[in-house]
Amino acid sequence: MVNNFWQDRSVFVTGCTGLLGSWMTQELVSRGANVVGLVRDWVPQSRLFSEGLSQKITTVYGCLEDLSVLERAINEHEIDTVFHLAAQTIVGVANREPLGTFEANIKGTWNLLEACRRVGGVSRIVVASSDKAYGDQEELPYDETTPLQGEHPYDVSKSCADLISRTYYVSYGLPVCVTRCGNFYGGGDLNFNRIVPDTIRSTLRDKPVQIRSDGTFIRDYFYVKDGVLAYLHLAEQMERKEVWGEAFNFSNELQIPVIDLVRKILKLMGKPHLEPIILNQAKNEIKHQYLSAEKARKLLNWSPKYTLDEALLETIDWYSHFLEEKTPSIVTVSESGQL
Fold first, then answer.
1. Alpha-carbon span 282 to 196, nearest angstrom
2. Catalytic residues
3. C or N: which end of the chain has fewer Cβ atoms within 10 Å?
4. Residue closest to 116 by CA, chosen among 81, 167, 66
């Protein structure tokens, strides 16, 4: 990696108040980039605001559904690189409000890409898709040749956004790459119905965590700091035009049932006696999902930096400090897609 690659580079980050976006913003700032962040809602507990990152970037207020806002931001700030991370990511919300999810995730993606096409001058665009874009498949792990066939609202929205990104490369030569990752976790995730933060919070309070599924669902859990490094590495590799238009799975390639992940967290926190409560209430969710990262390893020479234990210990430490400083009424937030 060229140490000064990001120095003075103008970078547009959508979704900068989110889990991945806040860590991405922090890393880009530390590498000397001029970050422009798109913010729809003021989320005071987001790391972007609570840890002072917003003071180090230029903020554009608006939403993905407004093409004019995106065009203005890209044009006026002379954007070189785009990380499109913003999306409606909550499975439960998507099931209740599919149209809003389609507007944000599908229209938002074509607006972002169309703004880049119209303005011109953007050197690289990394679009965040998801392993959910593959839908439910009989053959596992998913690789990049697996068909995109989501069926439920959130999954479909990611399948569509993924395909739209591909067409902007094929039809217009836009320098786009797509990332497909599993379930991000790490400090700063304020959706406490997700399995990792909820398990940690429940354990700190000596309460057994509730698992919505039967506990056997397999997911691809990916540490947010590894995600940031993967996205940056991909963007740097896009200096090679043969990478343009490609999609890449990023994964530590561990196959972990939900119940095993919970018990590992309990063990790391020294409370293995807190037996989880199995609700078995999950609906419209795929039972087994995990990824092959062979393409990224071979074509990009990429590998994850953190082991599962290292990542979980860092995450536990972050929430331990965060929850010491907050009251329960402050840290209770929106529903998410915990399994």
1. 17
2. 154
3. N
4. 81
DSSP class of residue 10 equals E
Residue 84 backbone dihedrals phi, psi, to 5 degrees:
-95, 95
**Max Cα distance, the chain (Å):** 58
pLDDT at 284: 64
Helices and strands: H and E segment counts in the chain: 13, 13
318, with CB counted inside 10 A (0-12, 13-18, 19+), is middle
Encode pLDDT of 12-64 as tens digits. Answer: 999 999 999 999 999 999 999 999 999 999 989 899 999 999 999 999 999 99
Measured distance between the N- and C-terminal CA atoms of the chain, rounded to whole angstroms: 37
Q: List the domains of the chain with CATH numbers.
A: 10-184+222-250 (3.40.50.720), 185-219+255-286+306-331 (3.90.25.10)
Tokens representing residue 133 in the block: 């874009």
Q: What is the pLDDT of residues 173-206, one digit of tens each?
A: 999 999 999 999 999 998 898 999 999 999 999 9
Question: CA–CA separation, 161 vs 167, rounded Å?
Answer: 10
- Show the tokens assigned to 210: 């509730």
Instruction: Locate 84 and state its tokens.
Output: 């499109």
Give the integer Cα–Cα distance in Å for 280 and 237: 43
